[in-house]
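Exercise 7. Predict the joint structure of the components listed below.
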Amino acid sequence: MSSTVVADPVVAAPQRYLEAQISWRPVEIAFWLATLLPFVLTPNYLVLASQIAITALFALSLDLILGYAGIVSLGHAAYFGFASYTAGLIAKWGWGEPLTGLVIAAAAAGVLGYVTSFIIARFRHLALIMITLGLGLLLAEAANSASWLTGGADGLQGVRMWKLFGVFEFDLWGKASYTYSLVMLFLMFLVARRLINSPFGLALRGIRENAVRMPAIGAPSPAHIRKVYTIAAVMAGVAGALLAQTTETVSLETLSFQRSADVLVILILGGAGRLYGGIVGAIIYMVARDQFSGINPQYWYFWIGALLVAVVIFLPNGILGGLARLMPSKRGEA
Amino acid sequence: MSTLALSTRGLDKSFGSLVVANNIELKLPQGERYALIGPNGAGKTTLINLITGMLEPDKGQIFLGDEDITALKPEDRVKRGLVRTFQINTLFPHLNALEAVTLAVCERRGYAGTWWQKLPAYADAIEEAYAILTSLRLGGSCYRPTHELAYGQQRLLEIALALATRPKVLLLDEPAAGVPQGESAELFSVIANLSRDIAVLFIEHDMNVVFRFANRIIVMVGGRILVEGTPKEIAADARVREVYLGGARHG
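Solution:
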């Protein structure tokens, strides 16, 4: 018996209890409404806002595998960059319609994710870090050497997007870009939210919590891992395609180790396994980078480093983890 | 003689020069309660690991009913009804008991791959999980994260997770390990009340519990089965007395 007096949660019917666990909370609705504020408050920063939405989606895709299934990846940019180049090339070769291009690019990333997932599902922990890192480097170097296709270090030039729905142009002000990126982020978020609240999402948390027990309850963990890895690759692919389409260029940076590391930092900063962690992390990271690089363009990573160390020391579960501790909720999240 | 739920033929396993299983011939009839006893290091847990597929035998075969399951993956053996629990709690610390057992039920019912439906939509699985928890008197604590449960409750959850897979054969590795002696009888009464469709093999050190709850006892020493018999026979067996009282060979 614990000595502290904690009011036991009302013993509700189990189904109602689980229903309450996954219901939309007011703060979530407020959050999504707030994503519309940049249109009104900072109309000059919509390009940045669009980049943030794209990065947030990328971090969300990593959260599915890292935060929920416990798969550490240092090569997640492979799927982002692969879709970026696919989307860019489709447009370059004459089909500039954004939505179909996005779907094709995301599907391509999904195929790459599915193929590589067979390797991923066999390993854990340190071996997994090395393998994802290796796969990422492999693809980045392949893109670098295939400069006839990718433009190499100069980046992919000549990407011309058509107007979205034939009406909205991706211009320098970024109104269309942010709208497009935000809508995609929201749609993918709905998918991710449904996924983590599904029986499959529960199985993923089971893998994260105890991979040894899973086979002993009859769970085919490798199959689960292959599935979530493929879904995460599709999501990373949507993010990569969005970047290519809204900036009308693709550089090797989309495949780089730096991008894989950044997204990991962003997710840990915000809080892994919390769905909103990647989004909050992306907002803070990207705004901080924008501000710090304005103050000190050469050394802004110093401040990012300081921020990361501070967060890990004082908020080991990320910013959202810290907030959750301040405001104990009835949901009892991990 | 009733039909066998589980049997092994000539099961061998060594780690280098250390023989941990030597020609194990196990026969567990349907619905029986067998105890597996023996000194530390006798190879009892290793045998469970071999039977459940967590270790690969060097030689020999394992049968579940008539089916040779020697080559099956652990999760596929569970799907066929061969299930174990762990001596050291092997649970899901940040899932609550309801979620953990619901997960096991979902895996059995084939729901666990579905990612486009909400979990609460599977009322049948949730109710089944809750019923299992209630039957083990865990219903009142089922919304608390596993790591916050009392130790004895965690031992019960070990069993609840196994029951959620609807086992035909249940291998319990020291189900009462770490539970105070007074409470272990209570825990074993849960096991004694399990459906008679389930064959149970349990490892246990407390001889009072063993003699009370087992129909038959298998004694293992140094990776081999020394003797098998009814509690009365085992109690009277000179070799068993020697192992337990006269100091086991090589511990």
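Discussion. Chain B has two domains: 1-81+167-251, 90-165.
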